[in-house]
Amino acid sequence: QVQLVESGGGLVQAGGSLRLSCAASGSIFSINVMGWYRQAPGKQRELVATITSGGSRNYADFVKGRFTISRDNAKNTVYLQMNSLKPEDTAVYYCNADIHTKISSYMIYWGKGTLVTVSS
Asked: What whole-number distance in Å separates Cα of residue 93 and Cα of residue 70?
């Protein structure tokens, strides 16, 4: 069984920074793409950023230049450094990962989310 556990969320003032972490654990053989999504109250979940096992990154336009995604393949962990935060960044942030376990092929797994609140 695979688990993704996010951490690092919290309350921050506009213009501040937070760093989210998401660690994958379990019977993992390999991880392909890892990513961060967010869901604000009353809105659909949306892509924030993704990173491949080789380090190729993709960002949503609304975070380019402010957020940086990175990963530590040895630790099966993905990070999201969020700078210059805005009140509209307030949301529950979820990580996901495309994981090949020791008993099944690649599947998408989701964490339970971590709340980021940006005050004005």
From this structure: 15
Closest listed residue to residue 53, CA positions, set 21, 31, 25, 69 = 31
Task: Determine the Cα–Cα distance for residues 98 and 92; give it in Å rounded to an integer.
Answer: 20
Q: Given the structure tokens 């960044």, which residue do they identify?
A: 89
DSSP string, 47-70: EEEEE-TT--EEE-GGGTTTEEEE
Categorize the per-residue pLDDT at 1 as very low, low, confident or very high, splitting at 50, 70 and 90: confident
Residue in this structure with the two tokens 């990963």, named with its chain if needed: 71
* Largest interatomic CA distance in the chain: 47
**Type of residue at 3:** Q
